[in-house]
Model the fold of this input.
Amino acid sequence: MFSHTKEFASSNTLNELSHDKTAEWWHDSLFESYALIRSPKSRGAAGEKLVSVVMEQLGSTVERSGTSQFDRIIDGYRTEIKVSTAWDCTPDKFRWSQIRNQPYDRILFCGINPNTAKLAWATKQDLVENIFNDNFRQHAGKDGGLDIFWVAGSIEDFDWMRPISTWNEEN
Done:
């Protein structure tokens, strides 16, 4: 027989996982249901919907993009949406990943803590000038061929991330 369930179940590793503080940190919080979505694809889709609703509430016109190159068209801007929950049970410590140099005009960054959410934006040119370089490359090593990037920190850490209140101002 090839079953080793008993060995796995009694392992220290499994015991350590059962004491993970993440679920406890999000327990009974405003954004618990979002934070505990297990599938990255499902969490991304839910995050895009949340941000779209907020942008509509702020008076923007939001349309589905109809392409995989970007997520929405918001007030006529081809827009990519990136959402991160707080990492390591640390408020405002976000990681926005899978950022690609694709044909969009703007990117929205949403950071979700247990009971607060933050929203900022940047232009594609802001990304070209600040993160599309080897220091922010996510995959394939510093000299790799994949152009996938990530940003880690709080929205306030990056002077090129703009307050959402400036969305409709000229660039």
Remarks:
- The beta strands are 62-64, 72-74, 77-85, 94-100, 106-112, 117-123, 148-153, 162-163.
- The radius of gyration is 18 Å.
